[in-house]
Amino acid sequence: MTAANGAATAMPRARTALALSLSVLLLLIAVGLSLAFGEVDSKWSVIVAVRLPRVLLGVVAGAGLSAVGVALQALLRNPLAEPYVLGVSGGSALGAVIVISLGLTELTFVGASLIPVAALLGGLLATGIVYALARQGRGNAVSLLLSGVIVNAIASAAITFIKTLVTAGTAQEMLYWLMGFLDAPSSTSLAFVAAYVALGLAVLVMDSGKLNLLALGPSAAENLGLDVRALSLRTLLACSLIVGAITSASGMIGFIGLIVPHAVRRIAGPDIRVVLPASIIGGGATLVLCDLVSRLGFRLLERQTPVGAVTALIGGPLFLVILWRSRARMS
Q: What is the domain count for the chain?
C-alpha cells in the first residue's frame, strides 16, 4: 500500500472516530446537565423519580427520530426527508388520537400497548402515501414537500374533527400531547417505547450498508443485486414503528431527524454506516438538551414550553436553508 493510499484510508477512519466520539461526549454532557438542572432545585428523590425517566425518554426519542431521518433521506434520496415534515408524525398522532378518543387508554396492560400500535399503523399509512406520491413526482424536493403537506393537512383536519367530538378535558389532553412534551413516563410506558424503538433501530442498522447503495439510484442498486423493493418496505416499516412508538409517548416532536443527520454528515461524511450510529447517539443528546432548555425556561416564564416548540425554532430555519440550497442546485 502506498503512502497516498494509507493516508486516504486513515482520513475516513479519523472522521468516523471523531463523529462517534463527539456524539458520545455530547450525550454524556446532555444527560449530566439534565439530571443536575431543571424547574426546581435538585433533590435525590426528584432526580430518580422525575428527571431520570424523562431523560431516558428523551434519549430514546431523540435517537429514534434521528435514525428515521437518516433512513428516510437515504430511501428517498432527498435531504429534506424527515418524519415531521413528511407527515409520518402526523399520521402516527392521528392513530394515537383515535385510541385516546375511544377511551382505550384507561385499560391496563392492553391499553398501554394499543397507543403505540395505533400510532404505528397511522405512521405506516402516512409513510406509504408520501412515498408513493414522491415516486410519482420523481422524488424531487417539491413533490416530497407537497406530499408531506397534504398528509399533514389531512391528519390535522381529522384530529381537529375528533377533538370536537370528545369532552373538553380529553380535548385539552390531546392538545397538550400534540404539542410535543417530554413528561416523566411510567416504567411500563418507557419499556414499551424503548422496545419498539430498539426493534426498529436494529433493522435500520442491519440495513445501513444496503441503504448506502441507494445513493446510486434504484436501477444501479438493483444491478448490484440489491432488492430495492424489499429494502424499502423494511425501512418504511421500521421507521413507522419507531415514530409511532415515540409519538405515542411524547407527542409530535419535529426536526430532530433533520438537524442531527446534517450535522453528523458535516463531520463524518456521507457513509450511512457511520452517520446512522453517530446520529442515534447525537439525536438522543440533542433532544435531551432541547428539553433542558424547555425546563429551564420554566424559571423565567413560570410555565413550561413544549420541547416540540424548541426543536421547531431550531430546525425550521435549518429546513429553509436546506430547501434554498436544494433549489439552487436544481436551477
A: 1
